[in-house]
């Protein structure tokens, strides 16, 4: 009896979650009257604006990931190794982006870095791109931090560091050869989450007036009928592909099984 | 001057003096163990030699060079950890080659050296394995090979056997000693296991409360413990209280009997005496032995050795005797004569 209840709850959840998606998928295939077709998808893919904005956001996502990894991995490593008392502070700081709405952050940026400020980043396209990248890094910080922190928790950071030091390694070698390879899967999962966030982000890109994918999604939603559904399906597929890649990365990394202590 | 010279080492964390004042000279090629209970400062001394802790006071010299303020990666020291600490993302061969690569040794030479090292530790065929595919004993041997590969000046072993099970612990410690002697590498070994320390060391340092209570060969440490702490920590011991009647001639009274110790004593009055269980015999063995009547309270038959617990003059007394097929052990509750040679009595000093 209990089992049936559990399964029916599970089934209800599945239906609740998937039914709208199925509806959306079905609608996206109905562009041609009377038959199912991929016309809406073709229309999206042939739209030069789609390609431009998607390309722009992909590059921004990659830059954000690189910056995030360079910022978070050494910081978390150092805090775990030398300043464990600062961990609650780190937790707090990295949670802030979840609490402060992006609109507040971006208005802060615009006030701080406008053309009449000491660092007029919003005055040029490159400046705005840099600002946007920093904004994205802030948004993805909670995810990147937690992923890397969990990854580092799984290895004996201090002993591995000491072992590498006694073998003559300096800090750069330790980070590049010992720490990073061992938290690579964690870093990858942080990277995929960052990618998913950046691809769909609207507020930052719109208010900084950058040609990103998020604003394009919104614009297309207001001006077209079938294409937004196709776009939504494609972004979902992309996110799921990212999640599948995280799983694959975990599965295929040879050395992630931990050594017994 | 010794090859590795520690003088006046001190380490304190706030008001807590972990190492109070530590002096030790280690000769080139010598194997020295730091032995003591947890919290005695032995690991801190080792970590100061490795460079992971900076001494509050004192100097560390290796081969005449003052390394006290060098960073760990500048000291050319090999270290083996209790938790193995192999790099999980690298194969066995890559782990062993890690230090060689940093030293800038060519790939070809490094490959030869790695092969030599793997042969030395008896795992020549496991170069392509990852650490998680090895047993604990194998991992620790790889860790030893990795530490030795860059030819360090000093090898530090931080309780390397504590995480292993008993059988491997014994075989690996002999193997480590053999390798150490073959390479002639100066080694410091930290352990809390007295049997380990006694069996493989050239010299043993018994530490207590941040100080070296006694430094000596295993034979000296066991047979001539200088302090009550060393006597109690190393091996099993019977303690007796005597009274010095004539310090100059070593005359004392013990349990109402007068006897003479081979060496003069420092002062008159009560004196702490100790006796190893193997120095006590059932029945009188030779003339001149001191005899104590005792009641047997328990008998542990351990195969080659029989340990008998008895009460003599109101004090518990343990004795070890070899098993002899023609002589069964005494019955519990029986009264026996225990004897010992006064020469075997150890005079105990309080810890400094």
In words, what does this structure look like?
The complex is a heterodimer of chains A (261) and B (352). Chain A has 261 residues and is mainly alpha-helical. Chain A contains 12 helices and no strands. Chain A has helices spanning 2-28, 39-46, 48-81, 87-99, 102-112, 125-153, 157-166, 171-182, 184-200, 203-207, 213-223, 227-252. The model of chain A is unreliable at 257-261 (pLDDT under 50). Chain B has 352 residues and is of the alpha+beta class. Chain B is 24% helix and 35% strand. Chain B contains 8 helices and 20 strands. Chain B has helices at 42-50, 92-102, 107-120, 136-148, 166-183, 194-200, 218-223, 228-233; strands at residues 4-13, 16-26, 31-35, 57-62, 65-66, 77-80, 154-158, 186-191, 203-208, 211-216, 238-246, 251-254, 257-260, 269-275, 281-282, 290-301, 305-312, 315-322, 335-340, 346-348. In chain B, strand 11 (238-246) and strand 12 form a beta hairpin. In chain B, helix 2 (92-102) packs parallel to helix 4 and helix 3 (107-120) packs across helix 4. Chain B is globular, with a radius of gyration of 24 Å. The interface between A and B is medium-sized, with 27 and 36 residues.
